[in-house]
Amino acid sequence: MRAVDVIDKKRRGEVLTEEELRFLVEGYVKGNIPDYQMSAFLMAVVWRGMTREETLVLTRLLADSGERLDLSGIPGVKVDKHSTGGVGDKATLVVLPLVASIGVPVIKMSGRGLGHTGGTIDKLESIPGFRTDLSVAELVAQVKEVGIALGGQTADLAPADKKLYALRDVTGTVESLPLIASSVMSKKLAGGADAIVLDVKVGDGAFMKSRSDARRLARLMVEIGEAAGRRTVAVLSNMDQPLGCAIGNALEVAEAIGVLSGEGPFDLAEIALALAEEMAVLAGVAATREEARHKLRQSVAEGRALETLRRWIAAQGGDPAVVDDPHRLPQAPVQMPYLPKKAGFVAKLPALAFGLAAMRLGAGRETKDAAIDPSVGIVLHAKVGDRVQTHRPMFTVHARTEEDALRCMRELEAVIEISDDPVGAPPLILARIEGSETLPHTHLMEAAREARERAYVPYSGFAVGAALELADGRMVTGANVENASYGLTNCAERTAVFRAVAEASPGAKPEIRAVAVIADSPEPVSPCGACRQVLAEFCSPDTPVYLGNLRGDVAKTTVGELLPGAFTGAQMANVRLQDKEA
Hints:
four-stranded mixed β-sheet, EC 3.5.4.5, about 15% strand, metal-binding, single chain, alpha+beta, transferase, hydrolase
């Protein structure tokens, strides 16, 4: 077997076998396949996608490339938690002691941050004395004694993924759902947990900018977890503005302490509770999410959650006194408040801009080896929807110098928006996806709904969106585009199909696995005759078609049912043959 043949096969959009994928992964880890060939393979995956089966196999191969943690010696159901990352995301610092306080054993491997603010390890190491370089044996022993332990990711955990991710990071091949999902889930499977809760961030400060892409990623990761025998649940949460109020390592630790004390920002507390209740149910310490939430709130009220945090910090060498006196955490020498130039309602706090501003203060890393200053960052005093006044600080910059603070203020002043009219607070939880979900059209409908927003309909005002799922796992969308000459108007379904054809390899015909169409209609929208004929050209008669409206009504049919007796290419060939014979 040759690497070039496997690369070429994926470049042509064909499905790789388990043996071919194993050849690539094992060969790359051993050094038999060079970076330039693996880069070519990764780019082929970015362009051609992977089927569900290929993604499952790749995940398993990555997980099996190193050691798998054996947590069987820890009593109870072990539940892991993963976040796709965002600005001000310190939920792990709240969730872990919270669930441990009600009897859920927690052992977690975390990493450092690159860009924005620091990772979970960086935040915890802002606590004086806290150490994260624990061996697996130390982690297991600590969970048995304290109920909770967190350490840095070991080099032996999914080493193939570590090597592949480093390559993806420098070859423009990070943005691929199969590659993202297999990377995340390979580490979760190797981590040895019995169940997994995923926090998939959506929005400006998240890796997934659109809800449809986030839903697709979440569904794929849930499928991988369930296929591997791990009960898996994903929560989609909003990251259009920073989570909580603190952005910066020590500042975020202090905020997490506040939430566990029964105080702290509402949005952080709600996200933490939503994730913690999922973990509690998966661990079997609560029968329902409602029961879990009651137990978790009771633990906070009785001080058990805070005491668990205190014991956790002490067990890993940190100063537990920071729980009672957060001022013992590193403090920035300059703390400068920003007063807004106008009064009104906060309309926009772009998460990414705040994350980058905090990074430039020293709270995050621009390069892998850059040092982090745990004391610096930004603390918000108002969130989207809140009223602000010119004599009250909107946020405070914690910086090393006055010059740094003033530069940060100018940077953020250019991106925040204040409205004269009231602004509603954005939703926190956008969706929940679990392994028992049996609605294959959900992600398609979400993509079609998003595509509909890009429709060009100045004449009818009737916007339609369509989405196609291809056999290689990719999603292609389209919207209707009108013209003053109505006959030149193109429907959403045909826009999507023609786009799929245009993006296919030369001479290749896209293989459409499912279709979704949505519009603001009383009943689920139905394709016109021209669209039905085009779908019949590129789909099999039994290809499922999901027709919906904005109210959530969905009707399922097939291409064959939409156009029985469709005129086919075979009939056209027969006509040509008859013409030739005549």
